[in-house]
Amino acid sequence: MADFYQNGIITTLHNLADRPVEDLEAELVGFSKARPMGLLLPSLYSELEGEAMPRILDHLTQVPYLEQIVIGLDQATEDQYRDALKFFSRLPQPHRVLWNDGPRLKAIDEELRQMDLAPRELGKGRNVWYCMGYLLAADRVESIALHDCDVLTYDRSLLARLIYPVANPNFNYEFCKGFYARVANGKINGRVSRLLVTPLLRALKKTQGDMEYLNYMDSFRYPLAGEFSFRRDVLNDLRIPSDWGLEIGVLSEMHRNYANNRLCQVDIADNYDHKHQKLSADDASAGLSRMSIDISKALFRKLATRGVVFSSESFRTLKASYYRVALDFVETYHNDAVMNGLEYDLHGEERAVELFAENIMKAGEAFLDRPMERPFIPSWSRVSSAMPTVRDRLLQAVEEDTAEYAPS
């Protein structure tokens, strides 16, 4: 159970009473009359064959307040798309599966690419972006939740708590970030958030001085959580990265577009576990190594837009400051784990810090070497301006895919 403490400058909504999910859902059913609700699920086909997604689907079939579910399906052949349509067919809510690798959606992507408006990288960011475009085109929901499809401990209360702040018409929140304790199987998880993001933000405060943006980012209890919710009008002007910087990019965009009192974070689970990425210390293009570089670049880009000037010397200073702060955090987490009887790999944690310190320098070098790099996918308002028919065509492509490939 959480306490009531408000940390930082973003409102935190706690789990103070373990309210029954049925109670929350009854309220959400009432809210749905004023604010119809939807769910966005970015998924790899491989996740349909895993342990988590069938459990998630079991819970979603019991959710009474959703008007629409949109699934973005990546890395799927035609046969796998057919399997996915069958897999999701037991959902009682209206739903659609976007076959991102299908010829119809790829044709739209190619046209946008020729106009220099398409996502430049494959991955979760691209998947989420096309699903957001579809939700705008369908125009059926006002409040939308997004969560990952690899949550091994999923319970439908997670979704209810996640969407509640943007669904309640008496609240004024435009965006809500989920958070939870990353403790499972007797150990503390969430290495990138614990050992990279928070220490890096603290090191940036030391080297760049106190900045409202850094205080804002440091207010989020779990900034890399893949669970958030938002009002539909957020989608038009949202520019998101297509790489592992997605979550940092979304938080940065919300800071750019909205006042802090329109944003919040909510405790959505006492127990949360999902698939874990490898550290990939020998391969900067994979695993947590790639993730740490993309996240660092996302922060550097955002700070540059706010007038921060970086150089090779400033990145060396930042690396040294980060390293000291991160090692202090390692000691803190070690003591916390010992007191709670949890397993803690001190050597592995310090090894991760060493890798992340190296990758901060790699991210800095990449940032300086490619000053003209465009990090964000264009907003849907810009895309619609350049191609006014794009939303109708996206709707039509998904409907035609469904009609052609759905099981009879």
How many β-strand stretches?
10
Number of domain units: 1
Task: Specify the CATH class.
Answer: Alpha Beta
According to CATH, the homologous superfamily is Spore Coat Polysaccharide Biosynthesis Protein SpsA, Chain A
Shape: globular
N→C terminal distance: 48 Å
Count of helix runs: 15
Strand residue percentage: 5-15%
Mean pLDDT: 92
Q: What would you report as the Rg, rounded to the nearest angstrom? A: 21 Å
Helical fraction: 40-55%
Regarding quaternary structure, how should these chains be classified? single chain
Identify the CATH architecture: Alpha-Beta Complex
Give the biggest sheet. Answer: 8 strands, mixed
Low-confidence stretches: none
Lateral arrangement of strands in the main beta sheet: 1-10-6-9-5-2-3-4
CATH topology: Spore Coat Polysaccharide Biosynthesis Protein SpsA, Chain A
**Structural class determined from secondary elements:** alpha/beta
Q: Summarize the helix and strand pattern as letters.
A: EHEHHEHEHHEHEEEHHEHEHHHHH
Protein name: Glucosyl-3-phosphoglycerate synthase
InterPro entries: Nucleotide-diphossugar_trans
